[in-house]
Design goal:
Shape: flat
Distance between the termini: 87 Å
Radius of gyration: 27 Å
Structural class: alpha+beta
Helix content: 55-70%
Number of strands: 3
Length: 138
């Protein structure tokens, strides 16, 4: 019995030591991430992207998807993707609205603002694809 009770506390001591070491590593990584602005870029970046979406809904009437890239604390690019082509708005008006919203909500200008439109699924049917393949056969 004495041998069994002595083995259990030593096993627990090893587990506690490993857990303390893991917590210290986690605290060190969290401190490094907070120091380099990574936490702000990730958490606040999503808030800024949602704010840009809301601004563009108010300006244009259509809600886009907004993505962003940070590099060393600098906003390198923001992509604004509308769900379809907007026939009633000139492209220059959409571009100006996107740049204005990005500058306002991200609190800094992006190196590049990409404006995109989703065209939906391709209209090519399987039959048309088969016909195109048959034309290439001898």
């Amino acid at each position: 019995m004495q041998g069994t009770s002595a083995a259990v506390p030593s096993a627990r001591a090893g587990t506690v030591g490993a857990m303390v070491r893991n917590l210290l590593v986690l605290a060190l990584l969290a401190g490094c991430a907070a120091g380099c602005g990574l936490v702000d870029a990730v958490f606040d970046g999503f808030k800024h992207a949602k704010a840009v979406e809301n601004d563009l809904v108010a300006m244009v009437g259509v809600k886009p998807a907004v993505g962003f890239n940070w590099h060393n604390g600098r906003l390198t690019s923001v992509t604004v993707t509308f769900p379809r082509l907007l026939q009633d708005k000139p492209l220059q008006e959409l571009a100006d609205a996107a740049r204005t919203a990005v500058g306002k909500e991200f609190k800094q200008g992006a190196d590049d603002v990409v404006l995109a439109f989703s065209l939906g699924p391709s209209e090519t049917s399987a039959a048309q694809a088969d016909q195109a393949q048959n034309k290439n056969l001898p």
